[in-house]
Amino acid sequence: MATTTTQASLLLQKQLRDLAKHPVDGFSAGLVDDSNVFEWQVTIIGPPDTLYDGGYFNAIMSFPQNYPNSPPSVRFTSEMWHPNVYPDGRVCISILHPPGEDPNGYELASERWTPVHTVESIVLSIISMLSSPNDESPANIEAAKEWREQREDFKKKVRRIVRKSQEMF
Amino acid sequence: MGGGDADAGGEPAAAQATLHIRCTNGSKFAVRADLGATVGTFKAIVADSCDVPAPQQRLIYKGRILKDEQTLASYGVETDHTIHMVRGAAPPPASTAPAANQEPTTAAPASSPAAGLGGLLQNLGATGAAANSGGLGLFGSGLPELDHMQQQLAENPNLMREIMNMPLMQNLMNSPELIRSIIMNNPQMRELIDRNPDLAHVLNDPSIMRQTFEAVRNPELMREMMRNTDRAMSNIESSPEGFNMLRRMYETVQEPFLNATTMGSEGDRNSNPFAALLGNQGSNQARDSAANGTTTASDTTSGAPAPNTNPLPNPWGPNAGSAQGAARSPPATNTRSTTAGGPGGLGSADFGSTLGASGGGSDATFLTQVLQNPTMMQMMQNIMSNPQSMNQLLNMNPNVRNMMESNTQMREMIQNPEFIRQLTSPETLQQLISFQQSLMSQLGQQQTGQERTQSASGAGNVNLNTLMNMFSGLGAGGGLGVPNAPNVPPEELYATQLAQLQEMGFFDTQENIRALAATAGNVHAAVERLLGNMGQ
């Protein structure tokens, strides 16, 4: 257990340094508290040419002690309206699900978590999720229904949360 | 890049840090600023390096949005670190921000439909498996006897195929004299054949024997023949007096036939080299027709080498068959097998099949007893050790000589002493014994079928083996009680055979009489003759 903790801590610190020196477009990531390396704060910039363009959405990434053998959990602290984000802000995408066969049968085993993922690949997947919602297995049923049947209402809600995120500054 | 003139304090130049600013359009530049300055002041410095006014700047560092009233040091900003800057909403209307490059992503949410397809494919696979199991259950429940027979054949498929496909066995099939001489060694079988001349006619017909071995070699053909025989037996049983006729044939022909087959032969007669010759001569004296005369001449010709030739071919069966490899069946045989689809052809083929199986059993028993005889074993070893003597002995038999001439490889194989030694090894004998046991188990199954029929006491529901045996006795039964006087006209001489042909569907009486006269009263041969004429 100590070795695992040390390994996870070292890995996360290394990834943190890499992101600080070589940032990736679209998001910025750092620690919530410098004393805890397992809690990260991520600011995701709304991708251009999407409904979320212009928005700034904050999220918290909680890494497990046995990272990278298990996936972290991602939860939006900003208000978010998306079919694949639960009402409480938790993100539901395939790469954040534990390894093994999906009990519901919606995902392939190869789509789920693998230890090769990094903070960068996780956040990029979330940005891709914002661009392409998946309404087949929605986490927010209301949002999925609106996105599928009443696209205009969905757009209005997204524009509202974008303006709200801008007012945070 | 400017920014140097913004430094208005008394801070030394060496204390200033270099920070990198990354814009949403991908551009990147560096500015020098004091880490103790506030974010608001820092934004003014950044505004000098790009066209974004300070109020519209949104600075993000390590997942946090920088507030104007905080200092850079409080956010942990250090030299050579990068801060993201994006253009925010401004009170006055501004121009559209340039589009940023979208980084390629490693995951694709659109692949979830593929997962659904995977599940669908799994469901299709399960459906296929269920259909297969259902089909197997239907087949098993529908034909239990056929399934049991098929299992017995499947237990030794390679051994059966090797034995039937070897050239010596093919030559044996084309040689009725050898088969009849082997069967005549059994006293009860000889007695049975004397009482039923039609059985002798079946033995005289090489085509029936060839069809029999073809059916034994091919399980599919055997199964189809049995199915057609079952249908024919049902038709016979449903006609008036049909069941009584079947029972009469069974009591008169089939039961003594099985007893003769399973009864062991006497040892001293088998070891006597002249027993076969005497048996053949005794049997031939009972016939006075021209065909029988020709048969007598053939027996006399092959009678001389019979004592030494009969045991020789069989020990070479398994290895020789495997050495030769592929089967050699002439196309004419396949055509005849196709003809066997008809009821008449099926009768002759199935009768030959039963007789062939019984003959095989006798052959195995006879061979075992011959090999256990010390004198015969010593004689065989002396012959095998001398290649010239072996070659001379094989040339005395016309059939064997023809085979040797047509197949040089076979000749070299026989003249090889090491090969001969391999044939006489215990492994070969074990193979022959297992083959014999397989045949005996089939005969045992037939006996069980007979007992079941007797316990049924007239019930119409008889099993498949009993039906096959009864039908195979149909032709032989026709010869019962018919006097062999030459002065009797054909209509009266072949009255029973004519009735059988009528039942089979051949209604031309004159044509039937001609066919029966040409085949000496053999119903099966007459049916083949009639079918051949119709084919023309």
Automatic annotation (TrEMBL), chain A:
Q: Return one GO MF term.
A: ATP binding
- Where's the UBC core domain? 7-167
Q: Which UniProt keywords apply?
A: ATP-binding, Nucleotide-binding, Transferase, Ubl conjugation pathway
Provide the taxonomic classification: Eukaryota, Viridiplantae, Streptophyta, Embryophyta, Tracheophyta
- This protein is called E2 ubiquitin-conjugating enzyme
Which gene is this protein's source?
LOC541984
Keyword check for DNA repair: no
> Which Pfam families does its entry note?
UQ_con
Uppermost EC category = transferase
TrEMBL record, chain B:
Keywords of the record: Ubl conjugation
Q: Which GO terms describe its biological process?
A: ubiquitin-dependent protein catabolic process
Residue ranges with Polar residues bias: 331-340
Q: Where is the Ubiquitin-like domain?
A: 17-86
| Source domain of life | Eukaryota
Show the GO cellular component annotation of the record.
Answer: cytosol; nucleus
**Species, as recorded:** Zea mays
Region (Disordered): which ranges? 88-113, 261-356
User: PROSITE patterns per the record?
Assistant: UBA, UBIQUITIN_1, UBIQUITIN_2
Q: Which intervals hold domain UBA?
A: 489-533
Annotated Low complexity bias = 96-113, 288-307
From the Swiss-Prot or TrEMBL record, give the protein name.
Answer: Ubiquitin domain-containing protein DSK2b
CDD domains given for it?
UBA_PLICs, Ubl_Dsk2p_like
From the UniProt record, which GO molecular function terms apply? polyubiquitin modification-dependent protein binding
Pfam families per record: UBA, ubiquitin, UBQLN1
